[in-house]
Design goal:
The chain is of the alpha+beta class. The protein is built from 7 helices and 8 strands, in the order αβαβαβαααβββαββ. The chain has a two-stranded antiparallel ribbon. The chain has a two-stranded antiparallel ribbon with strand order 2-3. Strands 4-5 form a two-stranded antiparallel ribbon. A hairpin with a 3-residue loop joins strand 7 and strand 8.
Length: 231
């Protein structure tokens, strides 16, 4: 078996030349590592809403929106339409990984929407459902894009006739390094009066939106077939 340390050195060398352009590439450290054993149900990110959980999720998403440079938006031909920061220091951006984390967080909230949004009407519930469908679609695309090819093996369980699944390892980045990189560039785009639309006025006059996604995305679904609600 090849030691993980040797895998990591080889992986870092192979992947650096094939990375998508991103200002965060300088913060990417690849490694191959096993995940902690267990079902994850004791982690602070799951379960009923509580202070520990809210703090844990804020720690992941607090640096979601960052300052990016003119060169970054020019690379993608977005300079004309990019949202500039009021102080002229750059533009607003978000790394894709934070969209993934946002969607996971949103789906967790949807599981407990009677607690998070106890007084919403049926119209808002439907909007929340549609946003959840968007997040499911987005996470599916991310999973197919990442294509984690780490193996899962199976073993016999003396207490069940069904074999048990056992993960081996995953190809990961060093999240602490990337999170620190984002923290050093983070901005609060939801601060009331901070962003002003050129013709429509303040983007977030009341601060961060309570419902909808991080950018108040609007999603639509095709009509339900007349035969029923589908799978």
């Amino acid at each position: 078996m090849v030691p993980l340390a040797a895998w990591n050195v080889s992986l870092q060398s192979k992947l650096k030349g094939t990375l998508l352009y991103s200002p965060a590439n300088e913060a990417i450290e690849w490694n191959v590592a096993p995940w902690p054993a267990g079902d994850g149900l004791s982690e602070p990110f799951v379960g009923y809403p509580r202070p520990e959980l809210e703090e844990a999720w804020h720690g992941l998403l607090g640096n979601m929106n960052i300052r990016i440079s003119k060169e970054d938006v020019q690379h993608f031909g977005r300079e004309e339409n990019a949202v500039a920061l009021p102080d002229g220091s750059g533009y607003i951006g978000t790394l894709n990984v934070y969209h993934e984390i946002h969607c996971i967080r949103w789906l967790h909230k949807h599981l407990y929407q009677d607690i998070y949004w106890p007084n919403i009407d049926d119209n808002q519930k439907e909007k929340n459902r549609v946003h959840s469908e968007h997040c499911l679609s987005t996470l599916r695309k991310f999973a197919l894009c990442h294509g984690d090819v780490g193996l899962i093996t199976y073993s016999w369980n003396p207490h069940s006739a069904k074999p048990s699944a056992n993960a081996t390892a995953h190809q990961c980045i060093n999240w602490d390094v990337l999170s620190k990189w984002s923290e050093n560039r983070s901005i609060d785009m939801f601060k009331p009066g901070y962003l002003i639309h050129p013709t429509l006025g303040p983007a977030y006059p009341n601060g961060e939106p309570v419902h909808g996604g991080p950018h108040e995305e609007v999603h639509t679904l095709p009509p339900v077939p007349s035969g029923g609600k589908g799978d």
